[in-house]
Amino acid sequence: MIGRKRKVRRNVYKAGVRQRRQNRIARIRKTALALGGLALFTAFNLALILVHDWITQTPLLPIETVRVEGAQRLTAGIVRQRAGIAMDGNILAVKLGTARRRLAAHPWIAEARVMREIPTEIVIRIREHDCAAVLNLERQFLISSAGVVFKERQHDECADAPLISGIDYVDLGLEGNAPSAALDAALTLLSRSGGWTDLDGRFKIREIRVDPDLGLTLFVAPPGNHPAFRTVILGFANWSHKSRKLAAIQSYLKRRRLMPDARVFNLRDPDRIVISPEAPGATAAPTKEV
Q1: Which CATH number describes the domain made up of 133-276?
Q2: What string of DSSP letters covers 148-199?
C-alpha cells in the first residue's frame, strides 16, 4: 500500500456554486435585455404618438376645400355638415370612416365615399336614392327604383312621384325577403313607363293601384291637383305589347276626335281592348275607390 498515489476528489460544492453564479448572471442579462427592449418599444411608441399629434394638429396642413360630388336633392352645405368636417381643420385629423358612416346614415344617401386630396382638399362623393314612387300604407313612405324603402314621407316630398296603393307591409320584402310580385310589377312598370307617362301628351301617372289577383291599374291626370283623370287597366306583364296597343288606340282616337271622351282603357286582354267614356266616380281624386 506504501507508495500508492491518493486520488484527488472533485470539489462538488465549489462547482455547484460556480454554476449557480453563472445561471444568476445569465438571468440578470436576459432581464436587462428585456427591460431595455421594453424601454425602446415604449420610447418608439411615445415618439409615434408625439409625431401623430403634431401631424394632426399642425396648422401647416389645413382643410381649404371640401368638395361635394353627386348631391342633387341635398345641398353641399348639408352634406358637409352631415359628414362633420370643419373647414380650416387639419386634413390628416379627419376620420374618413366616421365621416362616411355619418353620411350613410342620412336617409337620402344611398352610398358615400370620403377621400383626402393632399395637401388641402377633402372630396365627398355621394349617391342619393332616386324617388321612384310613394307607397301608400298606413303612412306614406318613399321607395327607390331598386325597391329600397328609404324614408317616411315628410310634407310634400316627391310631390311629382306616382302613388302606389293597394299593398301591405308584407309586400315590402322586409327582413331580407324580396318584394312581393305585385309590388315588383309596379316598380318594373315605372322603370319602363315611357309608354304610360305620356297619355294624350299631357297626362302623367298619378297612381298605380295594385291588386294581387287582377294586376295593375293606372290613374293618369294632368300635372297638379287636377280632378280629371283617366284609368288604364293593365293586369300583369306584357307591358311593351300593351304600350304599343295603347299608342295605336290613342292615334286612332285622336284622328277621329274621340280622345277627349275616352276615360277608361281596359288592356288586361291586349287582344280585346275595352274603352269606356266614363268611370264610376271619375271626378273624384284618383286615390279614392272607383
Answers
A1: 3.40.50.11690
A2: -EEEE--TTTTTTSPEEES--GGGG--TTPPPPHHHHHHHHHHHTGGGTS-B
First-last CA distance in the chain: 138
Give residue for cell 304599343: 244
**H helical segments located in 192-284:** 239-255
3-state secondary structure of 218: strand
**Domain covering 65-128 assigned CATH 3.40.50.10350 in the classification:** no
pLDDT recorded at residue 280: 46
CB atoms near residue 250 (< 10 Å) = 17
Whether 268 and 277 have beta carbons less than 8 Å apart is answered as no
Q: How many CA atoms lie within 13 A of 80 on its CB side?
A: 14
Alpha carbons 250 and 258: distance in angstroms, whole number: 9
Q: Distance (Å, rounded) from C-alpha 186 to C-alpha 209?
A: 9
Phi-psi region of 125 (alpha: psi -120 to 50; beta: other; left: phi over 0): beta
Residue recorded with cell 389645413:
62
Mean pLDDT, the chain, integer:
79
Distances (CA, A) of 194 to 36, 139, 150, 169, 229: 76, 28, 25, 28, 18
Residue whose cell numbers read 287636377? 226
Render pLDDT for 151-164 as a digit per residue (tens, 0 to 9). 999 988 898 889 99
User: How many CB atoms are closer than 10 A to CB 177?
Assistant: 9
Domain boundaries, the chain: 65-128, 133-276
